Automatic annotation (TrEMBL), chain A:
Listed name of the protein: GINS subunit domain-containing protein
InterPro entries (UniProt xref): GINS_A, GINS_bundle-like_dom_sf, GINS_Psf3, GINS_Psf3_sf, PSF3_N
Gene3D superfamilies linked: 1.20.58.2050
Gene Ontology CC annotations of this record: GINS complex
Localisation: Nucleus
TrEMBL record, chain B:
Protein name: DNA replication complex GINS protein PSF2
Domain of life where this protein originates: Eukaryota
Species classification: Eukaryota, Viridiplantae, Streptophyta, Embryophyta, Tracheophyta
Organism of provenance: Gossypium anomalum
Subunit and partners: Component of the GINS complex.
Domain GINS subunit: 76-169
The keyword Translocase is annotated on this UniProt entry: no
DNA replication complex GINS protein PSF2 N-terminal domain span: 14-71
Main location, first listed in the record: nucleus
Amino acid sequence: MANYFNIDDILAEEEFVPVVFHKAANGVIIDPSSETNSVEQGAKVELPLWLAQDLYLRQAISISVPACFNQRTILGDERITDLNDWLLDTHKPFNALSSEGVLTRLEIQADAACVDLKSRSPYFYEFGCKIAPLGSLKVTSSRIEESKQCRIHALSLSLGCLASRPSKSNWSNKIVSNWVGDKTIEILLLSAFKIRYKEILTKAYTAAYTTASKFLTLLTKEESNLYEAAQVSMSAFKKWRMGGPRLQRASVLGRKRRSFE
Amino acid sequence: MAGQSDPHISLFSAEEVEFMAEDELIEIVPNMRMDPLNFICGDFGPFLPQIASQVPLWLAVALKKRGKCAIRPPQWMSVENLTRVLEGERESQGAFQVLPFHYVEISRLLFDHAREDIPDMYMVRSLIEDIRDVRIHKVETSLEKFSGTSAVKIPNLSAMEVNIIRPFVGRALQAFYKHDNPEKIPDVDRASSAQTRAANNEPRRQLRR
């Protein structure tokens, strides 16, 4: 754990992920507004990643893809049409969070450079890299049965809250694909970074700070670190080129000597 | 040699790169008589009036400041050569022309301390500034090209140009590497150690009595 004391690493693990509890837990206050100090089986809550990670490895919960990576937009053609139909549908099956996730992916596909990733998650890349391996763990773990059960449970839950919606035959597919465990997060991160990298590069070395400042608000923490590295080294070079005082006077030399008595 | 500047921003500051450039040899014509100087980096001299000799740049600048010598500008710093280089830089989009590794720093030191020794000083100066701007722009366009490549080769870059792009390129390549090889994320070993714990059906540690 080389990153143990890295503040960015710690903050990235503070991001919330939606989870579903498999087991009831007593004596915990996860939701301050609940009346009892317990979490029921099948409860849907949002936990910080560091907590969710450990509970997940003990198979107490299952993790869904956080809204900012929601995957259902990197799709084949036939599912794109399906998605459009889904977006147009007035009875949206998911809550606002997950439709935001869909939009994030659509926006990244359209023009990654203009997407405000910072508001999605200030540690978009770091968070994604931490979320992605959790999916592969699930595949290797021998408890596929359990995860199936929880999926069915979640399916019934979400169907339950949408009783008004006419059911579709491919409905279960959609919900199952909502869980962590696919490679598309990594693909999404890489494709987003490739495009945004070029934008950062051109802005960092050529644009003046005032014109770039609007762009800066869209950058995640990792990207603005990159931008600042370029900006600082360029301005240091410009300062050196302009010249100026070669030797700086030590701060103590300028002071007046204190008079004693 | 480690830089004294902030290691998180850049390995070397521009001043440190300039310090390293001062070790380059340059020809001077002394106007005084002096015994040979024996340094760790070599022996220089003896110095005789009107007889050219090779010395490190820092020594040349120190002597020049005291009015003890005239500095002969290096071969590449002629108007013809620089015009040729500038044309070459503008014509070829990908490749960089051959220039001394420390051309930015050497030219700046000579412009600062030995103006009167450089023929066509203003012409030379503007040519070098043009060359530098064209090259930096070219570096940026060539950086735009890489996307997830494991190795990058840009020949004939100079020390200062490398130093400017180093912090950015280092971080960018690291990020590309990280996203290209998700299985190599350092987080994995932590996750896999936890995985074995999960597979063993949560072994509970016995409390010692």
